[in-house]
Amino acid sequence: MKEKLLFIILFAFIAPQILAQNEFELKGKIVSQSTNLEGINVINQTKSIGTATSRGGYFTIRASVNDTVIFSAVHLKAYLHIVKEEDKEKELFFVPMEALLTELEEVTLTKYQNITPEALGIIPKGMKKFTPAERRLASTGDFKWYSPLLIPVGGMSVDGLINAISGRTAMRKKELAVERNEILLENIKLDFDEEFITSKLKIPEDYVEGFYFYILDEAEFLRPYKAKNKTMTEFVLSKLASQYLELQKLNEDE
Description:
Number of helices: 8
Largest sheet: 4 strands, antiparallel
Radius of gyration: 25 Å
Helix content: 40-55%
Strand content: 15-25%
Strand order of the largest sheet: 3-2-5-6
Distance between the termini: 74 Å
Order of helices and strands: HEEEEEEEHHHHHHH
């Protein structure tokens, strides 16, 4: 029984190392007649992970032999590559992509809600899309304790345990919370711009930014807003605007 337990423990630490050896960083560069090579989607369909090219068309993504990697962009013809053993030895993997459209020096973009990366075929339908903070948190291997019986099948993440002890995971979670608040604030500003706040809610121009942060922490506002109940949201905004102005008046009197 002791020997069996020892084998399980050893396997738990050795198995991740074996799996890690099969993975490698596929580093490459997009080659195309197009001069716009930044922001091209690079998706490892096998592992359901993705990234985007940096300026000049450079990218790095985790891969294993026989993984399917898809490269796509609106202005380029999609390219599919099956990772080969020899790709592991290449310092830089070149990806040829044909231009689909004649590029214009200036274009005007109109926001259409029904046009999404999924609808355009840029990313597979239903694939999880990660924000930068979510990707950073995922890279730490967010540690969770599981039953020892699950150790042989990857129930314990060694990297996740180390990051949890060092505090790196906690830091990444705080970064994610800040990012989500920033995204939420930007969406609120788009839906209720400064003109709406000043003309409809009668908030003085100097107090508009403060009012945005005031409602950002109000559950009474966030519930109908996230439920896309416009009528209730505007009703609550009017109520909160009155409360906010009262607070400002009290602060000025002091």
